[in-house]
Design a protein that fits this description.
alpha+beta; 8-stranded antiparallel beta sheet; 5-stranded antiparallel beta sheet; 13 strands
Length: 281
């Protein structure tokens, strides 16, 4: 699924602060993946304000690179796929069902990538767009190989014809994040899933502001007006944000998002707060 749009790689690399060798190697893939996750936040501001993100390659580049914004899984991973292909990697776009420890069958509303690295014996799973607690670096497409990534650990395991992405979550041990197959997905598949995720009344993205900044030793989240910071030493900090002005200040100064000063978010719904756990992508 190659596109005719010509990506401005210089602008993209400047956006994520990356200066590595532009060659399709494992070292390039690994460092690019980490730089993207750290450099471009996950956010659903456009959806909360009533919009539907465009997945056209030129629009993805404009929003995430030139406008200084972030996005959710479709935006992040489809942009990253285009960058990898421009560098000579082979990329297969995949879809996943988010589980987050549940056995419920959810729609395929997450996208991820299988990446072929020249000279490597197996592909790698890349995912720069999971909404909370996602990968910092690619994983080899091999069952049961644990990968320490900063303060977190991940692995892939098999379940019949499925692959499961798992992470270690608190005292629960290995925790299934999502399930996927290696079936190639096309642009139309993501257009349908994107429309569902942005417009369906029960979508977790439509009514709740969700923003995340990730790093090897700290993850910071905003959900509506609750700021949560989780650190590698196991400490956790939560703080209620008093109004839109404080939310915007954090989004601009701490999360690095360029937003209009007069942005007004919908009032957060009244709800009981669930036990702390990673969020859906």
């Amino acid at each position: 699924m190659r596109h005719l749009h010509h990506l401005d790689l210089d602008a993209y690399f400047a956006r994520i602060g990356w200066t590595g060798e532009r060659a399709p190697t494992w070292a390039t893939l690994r460092s690019l993946h980490l730089a993207h996750v750290v450099g471009i936040p996950f956010e659903n501001v456009e959806i909360v304000l009533g919009g539907v993100p465009s997945l056209a390659p030129a629009d993805l580049e404009d929003k995430l690179v030139r406008q200084g914004r972030g996005g959710y899984c479709f935006e992040h991973n489809l942009l990253f796929a285009g960058v990898l292909e421009a560098l000579g990697f082979g990329v297969t776009r995949l879809a996943a069902r988010v589980r987050m420890g549940s056995d419920a069958i959810r729609p395929m509303t997450h996208t991820l990538l299988a990446v072929e690295v020249p000279g490597e014996a197996h592909p790698y799973i890349a995912d720069v767009g999971f909404g909370s607690g996602g990968l910092l670096e690619p994983l080899p497409l091999l069952p049961g190989v644990a990968s320490p990534q900063g303060a977190w650990r991940f692995r892939l395991v098999r379940e019949d014809d499925l692959w499961l992405l798992q992470t270690v979550y608190g005292g629960q041990g290995w925790f299934t994040v999502y399930a996927f197959t290696l079936e190639r997905r096309e642009s139309v598949d993501f257009e349908v899933a994107n429309w569902y995720a942005a417009t369906h009344p029960s979508s977790p993205f439509r009514h709740t502001l969700r923003v995340q900044r990730s790093g090897p030793h700290e993850r910071a989240y905003i959900e509506d007006r609750l700021l949560t910071v989780v650190r590698s030493d196991g400490s956790r900090e939560e703080r209620e944000l008093k109004d839109d002005h404080e939310v915007l200040r954090l989004l601009v100064h701490d999360f690095g998002l360029l937003l209009p000063w007069d942005t007004v978010f919908p009032a957060p719904p009244e709800r009981a707060r669930p036990p702390a756990r990673p969020e859906e992508s």
